[in-house]
Design goal:
Elements lengths: L7 E9 L7 H13 L3 E8 L4 E9 L2 H8 L4
Antiparallel strand pairs: 1-3, 2-3
Amino acid sequence: MAEEMQKWEYRVQTVGGFFKGVPADELEELLNEWGVDGWEVVSTHILENANKINVIAKRPLTRTTRRERSMPSS
């Protein structure tokens, strides 16, 4: 019997600002919040000349997360 292939959902968020850069404490707080929700950072991308980074994360797409995505809270 074939095993079902794992499905993922992804999240991308831009962190930082032109004048403040990317404060380590704010980034750490964000990553800890994501970790509690099951997100794992897989990559970061520096936005040149903007003092910002894109943080890219993934987590397994489960029945629960599918339901949350189809019925987002207001």
